[in-house]
Design a protein that fits this description.
With about 80 residues, this protein is mainly alpha-helical. Helix content is about 80%, strand content about 0%. The protein is built from two helices and no strands. The chain is elongated, with a radius of gyration of 18 Å. The two termini are about 15 Å apart.
Length: about 80
């Protein structure tokens, strides 16, 4: 049986939370790549720091994504939901 807090608004909220996770990953990746590109232009080392920034951004965003999804999965499991 559903509790009052498990209505359609909760599903919408969870959907927005996952959209926010994806946007954060994309912005982290883009920000790190742009920072690397800016550094390359200043030091005239194109494409060294752009590539490095892209990989660092993927690592940072990926770690944050993994941590957020893991926390959400744990929260869902504690509420007694299906995996």
């Amino acid at each position: 049986m559903k509790t009052p807090s498990e209505g359609p608004n909760q599903a919408i909220g969870e959907g927005y939370a996952m959209v926010a996770v994806g946007m954060t990953f994309a912005l982290t990746l883009t920000g790190a790549a742009l920072l690397g590109f800016w550094l390359d232009r200043r030091l005239e080392t194109l494409p060294l720091f752009t590539i490095l920034g892209t990989f660092v951004g993927m690592a940072m965003g990926g770690y944050w994504l993994w941590a957020r999804v893991t926390a959400e999965s744990d929260r869902h499991r504690e509420r007694g939901g299906e995996e």
